[in-house]
Amino acid sequence: MTVFSNTERMNHPTIVKVISENKGGLSDEIPHLVYISREKRPKHPHHYKAGAMNVLTRVSGLMTNAPFMLNVDCDMYANNPEIVLQAMCLHLGSKNENEFAFIQSPQYFYDRPENLCILNEYIGKGIVGIQGPFYQGTGTFHRRDVVYGLCLDQIEHQGNIVEDELLKKFGNSKEFIKSAAQTLEGKTGGYSSNISRSLDEAHRVADCGYEYGSSWGDEVGCLYGATAEDNLTGLVIHSKGWRSGYCLPIPHAFLGCASPSGPAGMRQQKRWATGLLEILFSKRNPILATLIGKLQFRQCLAYLWILTWGLRSIPELCYIALPAYCIITNSTFLPKVQEPTVLIPLALFLIYKLYTLLEYIQAGLSIRSWWVNNCMARIVTTSAWLFGLVNAALEQFGFSEAVFEITQKIHRSQRCR
Questions:
Q1: CA distance linking residue 120 with residue 108, whole number of Å
Q2: 47 contacts: CB under 8 Å, gap ≥ 6
Q3: For the segment 227-274, what is each residue's pLDDT rounded down to a tens digit?
């Protein structure tokens, strides 16, 4: 633990610790745990979670070079002991074992079991029939070659790759390039038995300056350019023609803890709205991905549905302001009660609300959950999403820079214990 004693949070060298138990004198066993803390320096951008994911990808490529990777956030845990088996059945049981780029398990919370149920039950299952669910940043089983930038139409033409191309793409680590070439050529190899040599290279590929001059974050790995890096990465993968699978086992695959308070939840919603709008206004938006890429039209509509969350705050805010405006100006925006035309907006309102209530009942949720979530939807849209829209607009005009706000998942009282 001495290596952590004088370590500053945002200014420290690379730390890699290999933990092995019950080795029985064997030096070539796969370690039980490899702890990695990448190098951070004040003047070097570290790209938040996306940068951390890319470091983990490179180090795991040196240590094991496994063809599949599981991505789980630190505040989540495996709730179903068979989830790895079920996800691999989807990967390896698909067409030619090459149909899915990643298998996504939906997010559920043990402290708020009803959150996201409707999203997972209807939206998640609905887009499975197109190109598959969005990459949600956790609970995901990735194919390593897809993370390395492999396109769907390149599978049948996998062969020897020029080393100079790999240097420009993956950086200047010869050991990592060797493992990346093996992955992209479709070869299956064992892990490195020389752990000490892998450790030296692991420190190198986790340096803060390793990605300079390479394609990491642009064409390879988890992509930079938006605080919603998971949605951006999944969108680019889908635009290359890949599909994604949906694993919804019983019991739930993974469980996590929700934001412990209202302000923390609002900060998280604001960050999501900002990141999604960054993607919408970027050159990698789903419309261009459909026109010049291989994103299907209906999948484009699904992405637009989620990317426009922040934009919904404008009509919502205007609608909320209408009653006050009518009182001030002594006017109305709806037909009077005694007029027959009042039945049109009344019928639309009742039909929509009854339909959403039916969705909650079919999902096994209570009427109270439906009422609370409808109320919270109005609050989130006119506050967190509105501020997210303002943040995204300021970034687009160059008045501010993107900031990744970390959501606190533990109550202060629990941290004090």
A1: 9
A2: 54, 217, 224, 229
A3: 999 999 999 999 999 999 999 998 999 998 877 777 888 888 999 999
- 3-class SS at 70? strand
pTM for the whole structure: 0.89
Peptide bond before residue 251 is cis, with ω within 30 degrees of 0: yes
- 357 within 8 A of 246, measured Cβ to Cβ: no
What residue ranges do the domains of the chain occupy? 2-258, 263-417
Q: Write out the two tokens for 237.
A: 């993968």
Residue 49 assigned as binding residue: yes
The tokens describing 133, both together, are 């669910």
Region for 299 from its dihedrals, namely left if φ exceeds 0, alpha if ψ lies in -120 to 50, beta otherwise: alpha
Q: Which CATH architecture has domain 2-258?
A: Alpha-Beta Complex (3.90)
Lookup: tokens for 408: 């606190």
Q: Which two tokens stand for residue 164?
A: 């100079």
Q: Which amino acid is at 162?
A: V
Half-sphere exposure of 73 (CA within 13 A, CB side): 21
Give φ, ψ of 276 to 5 degrees. Answer: -70, -40
Judge whether 73 is annotated as a binding position: yes
| Nearest-angstrom CA–CA distance, 340 and 321 | 25
